[in-house]
Amino acid sequence: MAYIVALTGGIGSGKTTVANQFAKLGVPLVDADIIARKVVEPNSPALAAIKNRYDENIIQSDGSLNRQHLRKIIFSNESEKQWLNALLHPLIQQETQRQLQQITNPYVIWVVPLLFENKLSHLADRVLVIDVTPEEQIQRTMQRDNVNQEHVANIMQSQTSRENRLLQSDDIITNHDGESDIAEKVAALHEKYMTLAQQNK
């Protein structure tokens, strides 16, 4: 099994930017968000279960999941959120493990936005946190998703604190506005992870 580096960070921290930089160096990515979308693709058993539980509005005209509608339901209702997590988390984990086991490279970047929230850090060999200020998170997410500040603040409140994330990290990449050395930071960590993967064999 490849050495697993979990890449995480709060909303708007630039996880995708950093992950793509690793990919440019030939490092395989296993992305929890992509897997989460995959398990609820049209005609999947999980999507059928979601459709059975909620109204028709939960499915869009093209047969795909109406994520915005689902988000509204679970955001305001803790028990619905728990029901959804109980349905999807095992499926996501199963698919994640399947993808990780197929990796033949020395190490893999496992992109997991909710690594600490879902208590998954024990499944990784090392944790890399992408760090920015809360102000940067708010500005970037508002611009990217065209949402208001309150919406972003609510999401941030549902995520673990910046302090907690940094405390549990093995490595940190800062991605503040105006920083242009992400490629250099990633290249340095790439060397480090290659060494660790060799030692871990």
Walk me through what this model shows.
The protein is an alpha/beta fold and 201 residues long. It is built from nine helices and five strands; from the N terminus they run E-H-E-H-H-H-H-E-E-H-H-H-E-H. A five-stranded parallel beta sheet has the order 2-3-1-4-5, with helices on both faces. Helix 6 (134-145) crosses helix 7. It starts with a strand and ends with a helix. Keywords: ATP-binding, Coenzyme A biosynthesis, Cytoplasm, Kinase, Nucleotide-binding, Transferase. Its main location: cytoplasm. Belongs to the CoaE family. Pathway: Cofactor biosynthesis; coenzyme A biosynthesis; CoA from (R)-pantothenate: step 5/5. ATP binds at residues 12-17.
Strand tally is: 5
How much strand content do the residues show? Answer: 5-15%
Judging from the principal axes of the Cα atoms, what is the shape? globular
Record the strand order, biggest sheet.
2-3-1-4-5
Question: Helical element count?
Answer: 9
Low-pLDDT sequence parts: none
Mean pLDDT across every amino acid position: 94
Determine the fraction of residues in helical runs and give it as a percent range. 40-55%
Amino-to-carboxy terminus distance: 9 Å
Nearest-angstrom radius of gyration? 18 Å
Characterize the biggest β-sheet: 5 strands, parallel
Structural class determined from secondary elements: alpha/beta
SSE order in H/E notation?
A: EHEHHHHEEHHHEH
